[in-house]
Known about the structure:
- By secondary structure, this protein is an alpha/beta fold.
- The chain has one domain.
- The chain is built from seven helices and eight strands; from the N terminus they run E-E-E-E-H-H-E-H-E-H-E-H-E-H-H.
- It has an eight-stranded mixed sheet.
- The longest helix has 11 residues, at 111-121.
Amino acid sequence: MSQDNNVVNSVLLYPKGGKPSIIANDWLVWQGDGAELSNLDQTQKVLVPFSWWLADAKHSDSIVAKRIAAQTIGVWFAADEDILKHAEVIEAGKSIWPLVGADFPIFRDGRSFSTAALLRERFAWSGEIRAIGDVLIDQLILGARSGFDSFALRADQNTAIALKQFDLFTVTTQNSWRDRRSQIRSQLNSQLSNQPTEAL
């Protein structure tokens, strides 16, 4: 995961049924590979690696419990994480993690699209799912259809252009967690029936 994501200042939020907007990012993506969680300010919202949650969260019971109560802890999934192997943990997480992230270690690696889709479809996840890592504008439309509703864009991405991506297409050919695909045949029939017929 890119170190740059620890300092992303804003994110693109696109809630289901809402409009996209740029909001301040108040979540730190913690690597869990050096600094102890206890060294972080308790008010700092933090996403911890899901692998850390599985292996080490029990060793930090009191810190984690305080963060759960304060809604200042969530997890992020690595691209190669098999979340279906940990269904019970994720089901329990639905009530304690206000935010989860899915990492794109490089923009060409699309495995985290599947993570978001599985969370929405298999786990009926209704909370926020954030794309983190090497997130480019090109990934926004597919990400939004797969299940993401926020995006920590790479620092060199233009947020003004990013906000316009969701208005590029009026017809969609895939179903998504946001809506069903466009009914192209019924739209075409409707357009044809509204056209004046030529006199014979």
